[in-house]
């Protein structure tokens, strides 16, 4: 990442936040996070009656409110100085759900608020039917909330902690990218990807108004299609 940032700074003006994850083994992922993009890890545990819990959520690295570290361009920050690196050694393959997102998501949703989308596409045995639909559901939810002027969003709550913004209200319309992943113990990972009934339909850029979350396929529709 540091080398790529150095090359980009010579060729481009723009900057961006960055979240990178690397699978190091069946129980280990290594992460690098710069700015206010981020990731979270979700797990069902017997202690919580198999309800979803957020077992980890990254924190934004910022110079000040709404002023995140960024890389790229001649005004970008140095990776070695700005990056927060972590290694998670307790990943549970087949169980843990990893969500990676840009700040247009975290400004409008807390990680625990991803759970309705995960539950919407989980079968009775808690098996996740479509990672792609969970990602699209989270993205559309963030988009809709970002447009609401009377919503006390995570961004608004942080804004209220700063001088002169004590009554700030509303979502924050910003760039939205979501990736949902799971570590699978499979000899043929490609077959697992192709088993997602929504996989090819979820990879695109919205260039016009985003369809509402309510228009997404329901779980029963996917079961019937499968």
In short:
The protein has helices spanning 2-11, 79-82, 103-106, 115-120, 131-146, 154-159, 189-194, 199-202, 219-225, and strands at residues 18-25, 28-34, 38-44, 52-57, 62-64, 67-68, 84-88, 97-101, 178-181. With 226 residues, the chain is an alpha+beta fold.
SSE layout:
Elements: H1 2-11, E1 18-25, E2 28-34, E3 38-44, E4 52-57, E5 62-64, E6 67-68, H2 79-82, E7 84-88, E8 97-101, H3 103-106, H4 115-120, H5 131-146, H6 154-159, E9 178-181, H7 189-194, H8 199-202, H9 219-225
Antiparallel strand pairs: 1-2, 2-7, 3-4, 3-8, 5-6, 8-9
| Termini separation | 40 Å
Largest sheet: 4 strands, antiparallel
The share of residues in helices is 25-40%
Strand order of the largest sheet: 4-3-8-9
Q: In one word, what is the shape?
A: globular
Descriptive tags:
single chain, 226 residues, alpha+beta, three-stranded antiparallel β-sheet
Question: How would you explain this protein's 3D organization?
Answer:
The protein is built from 9 helices and 9 strands. The chain is an alpha+beta fold and 226 residues long. A 4-stranded antiparallel sheet has the order 4-3-8-9. A hairpin with a 2-residue loop joins strand 1 and strand 2. The longest helix is centred in the middle third of the chain and has 16 residues, at 131-146. The termini are far apart.
